[in-house]
TrEMBL record:
Keywords: Cell membrane, Coiled coil, Membrane, Phosphate transport, Transmembrane, Transmembrane helix, Transport. It is a multi-pass membrane protein. Belongs to the SYG1 (TC 2.A.94) family. InterPro entries: EXS_C, PHO1_SPX, SPX_dom. This is Phosphate transporter. It is found in: Cell membrane.
């Protein structure tokens, strides 16, 4: 695989604009190569011309460096091609620039453009990387404070009498924390006024009331500071430690300064936040400790993934600069890569080691406190395995697809051979049996559309597992979705084929009970598989679907996530499926299924529920919108929509957004027209165009429902495209994990 494609496959998609534009740099080198080939330029100029050009460029460089104060000094070498330097800017930031010393040579303007673009890309990468490192350092400090509170809560829950020494008077534990966190904290234990100081961050000494005297518990701690270990930094840290007069309460007393964050993610917590505050005092219960540990565990895992991707970002960009400079040397037969890569190695991108230190310390902390010292278990939690493509999935997909095609052919042949379209029992079949089986058609079609979406999202590098919030390694790919759809279609088509009989038994004047119960049995099987608690048939995905469905039912009592309102949108397109379920209850509960007769439409209750069932998905979606409006307190969304609509003429793509996944803009305009037309199809139900000359009324309703599902599938692709570009624009590649504790000195957001 070429490096350009490898880079594109491994980069964090939400950060793609922050990576080096390798393809653009490669294009500039191709232009340079084409120019040199067309003009038959030699590999290098003559020594006299090279010496004159170098002398002139060095003179200009000295004059320029005397004015701007550049770091470094040029090397006086006639083979020198570039001079790389760093211009100091505000603060401690540097802007790197390259002076090309051969611009007067033929074709030099191409190389000058290349190095200007190279410097632009390098400065962009360094700025982004440094900003992200500063962010993770602040987050590491916040997680350290969260760990202090968690350890204190563990001690308080497990040993409620910590703080009273048996026969020795009160025991006190404090952590000496220098201001600014410039040095490690020191643990100080005091018993009856006698202080004992432990080594920095080596352990926290706790005393508890035990039989036989004083019992000492030692809990190892790991420092999460990112400070270096140079002599100057150590001296500064020691000075700050000695000069500091402020101390942070120790692991037990810290609970006096924290509150428990109550996230509005359940009905109870939502109602509590409406009535009371979103912060509560610690209750020191086992349940509270378990919730805090789970939240902090998730925060550590998410932070670890962030550090790993940041490390990968640094490595891939450094490798890209190395590759592109070697290509330049090969094309021009120069030796410029050595000088430039030396600058790359000495820059912040090459010398910063904060991320590696944080990774090591986070691993040690997680293994110690969340894996009971078991490194294999801890690393398995921190580094979840990637999902492996299984050949059996492809095999069974092909098998079920072939069986489905064969069953469709068998149904068509059976209908024509028995002339069922002109049979006198056709109307009875369409009124009673067809609605039962159409339910499975709606579900299979929706699954096929979702499978197609997952294929396109992966094809265009949309990170849909992150957008939906799937647990890493558990998301379903297009093969798995198509496998489920084809498997369900085989069951449904086989049931249809077994239930095509339209003639009653002349002796009993009824249909065979066993075949008439096939649709009910099939629904029962699907429901049992959906709610099956055993780890079979993608349990993680089934439970994720059920959880989102429950959130939709209980809206607005649950916090609304994208997966929740995305599912609610899907349900609004499955109104006929819900009505089919309603018909199942009426048909098998109050109808005479042995004679294929029902009086559902004659019931006023059924007609009322027929309308209510259609309203529920839209009502749930509306309540979700109200919940988001209440939480985000954004009443300007309507005005923003108008503003965005009025500014569409100023975009690079009129009537479309600036960034598009599909390069062919006609696809978007066709999708707009199709979406409008399909949205108007529902009018046939209002205007009573329910029956065509060649279609039964029930069939017409099913066709309209299928068209709505197709429209929803098209909309799904562009909806996630919009969310993807929102993440890209904000460089949002990680989830925001709620933390369990809130310090009183922190600002309430």
């Amino acid at each position: 695989m070429k490096f350009g494609k490898e880079l594109a496959s491994q980069m964090v998609q939400e950060w793609q604009a922050a990576y080096v534009d390798y393809n653009q740099l490669k294009k500039l080198l191709k232009d340079l190569l084409r120019f040199r080939q067309n003009h038959a330029l030699p590999s290098s100029p003559g020594p006299a011309a090279r010496q004159r050009s170098l002398t002139r460029r060095l003179t200009m460089y000295r004059a320029f460096s005397g004015l701007t104060g550049l770091r470094g000094s040029p090397r006086k070498n006639e083979d020198e091609v570039i001079l790389v330097s760093a211009v100091e800017q505000e603060g401690s930031d540097y802007r790197y620039q390259t002076m090309f010393l051969r611009s007067s040579e033929e074709g030099g303007e191409y190389e000058l453009v290349f190095f200007r673009k190279l410097d632009e890309e390098f400065n962009k990468v360094v700025k982004f990387y440094k900003g992200k490192v500063e962010e993770v350092k602040k987050e590491a400090e916040q997680l350290s404070k969260q760990m202090d509170a968690l350890i204190a809560l563990r001690i308080r829950v497990d040993k409620p009498y910590v703080g009273v020494g048996h026969g020795f008077g009160p025991a006190e534990v404090r952590v000496a924390a220098p201001a600014g966190n410039s040095a490690p904290a020191t643990v100080i234990a005091s018993v009856n006024g006698v202080k004992q100081e432990s080594s920095p961050f080596s352990s926290i000494v706790l005393f508890s009331n035990m039989k036989g005297g004083l019992h000492m518990d030692v809990i190892q701690e790991v420092e999460m500071s990112t400070e270096g270990n140079s002599v100057g930094e150590q001296a500064s840290a020691e000075k700050n430690r000695k000069d500091s007069r402020s101390f942070r309460p120790a692991s037990i007393d810290v609970l006096d300064h924290v509150k428990i964050n109550v996230d509005p993610d359940t009905p109870v917590s939502t109602l509590r936040n409406v009535i009371k505050s979103s912060k509560s005092d610690p209750s020191f219960s086992k349940e509270e400790l378990t919730k805090a540990e789970e939240k902090l565990r998730k925060a550590f895992v998410e932070f670890y993934q962030q550090l790993r991707l940041l490390k990968s970002y640094c490595f891939l960009n450094m490798l890209a600069f190395s590759k592109i400079m070697k290509k330049y040397d090969k094309i021009t037969s120069r030796s410029a890569s050595k000088s430039y890569l030396e600058m790359v190695d000495k820059s912040y991108l090459g010398t910063s080691d904060e991320v590696n230190k944080l990774i090591e310390r986070l691993e040690a902390t997680f293994i110690k406190h969340f894996a009971n010292g078991n490194r294999r278990k801890g690393m398995k939690s921190l580094r979840p395995g990637h999902k492996k493509e299984r050949h059996r999935t492809t095999f069974f997909l092909g098998l079920f697809t072939g069986c489905s095609i064969a069953l469709v052919a068998a149904i068509i042949v059976s209908i024509h051979a028995r002339n069922l379209l002109n049979h006198e029992g056709r109307g009875q079949y369409m009124d009673n049996i067809f609605p039962l089986y159409s339910l499975f058609g709606f579900i299979v079609l929706h699954m096929i559309m979702y499978g197609s979406n997952t294929y396109l999202w992966r094809r265009f590098r949309v990170n849909y597992p992150f957008i939906f919030g799937f647990k890493p390694g558990t998301e379903l790919g297009f093969r798995e979705v198509f496998l489920l759809a084809s498997g369900l279609s085989v069951l449904a088509l086989a049931a249809v084929l077994s239930n095509l009989d339209m003639e009653m038994d002349p002796r009993t004047q009824s249909f065979e009970a066993l075949t008439e119960l096939v649709p009910l049995g099939l629904v029962t099987v699907v429901l049992l598989i959906t709610f099956c608690p055993f780890n079979i048939i993608y349990r993680s995905s089934r439970f994720f679907l059920l959880r989102c469905a429950w959130h939709c039912i209980c809206a607005p009592l649950y916090k609304v996530t994208l997966s929740d309102f995305f599912l609610a949108d899907q349900l609004t397109s499955q109104v006929q499926a819900f009505r089919s379920l309603q018909f199942y209850v009426c048909y098998y509960g109050w109808g005479d299924f042995k004679k294929r007769s029902n009086r559902c439409l004659e019931s006023n209750v059924y007609e009322i529920l027929y309308i209510v069932v259609a309203i529920i998905p839209f009502w749930s979606r509306a309540l979700q919108c109200l919940r988001r409006l209440f939480e985000e307190k954004d009443t300007m969304q309507g005005l923003n929509c108008l503003k965005l609509g009025s500014s569409a003429k100023e975009c690079q793509n009129p009537w479309l957004r600036d960034k598009l996944l599909i390069s062919n803009k006609a696809v978007y305009f066709v999708a707009i027209v199709v979406n409008i037309l399909l949205r108007l199809v529902w009018m046939q139900l209002v205007l009573d165009f329910n029956e065509a000359p060649f279609l039964h009324r029930r069939a017409m309703v099913a066709v309209v429902a299928c068209l709505e599902i197709l429209r929803r599938g098209i909309w799904n692709f562009f909806r996630l495209e919009n969310e993807h570009f929102n993440n890209v624009g904000k460089y949002r590649a990680f989830k925001s994990v709620p933390l369990p504790f809130h310090y009183e000195d922190e600002k309430i957001m």
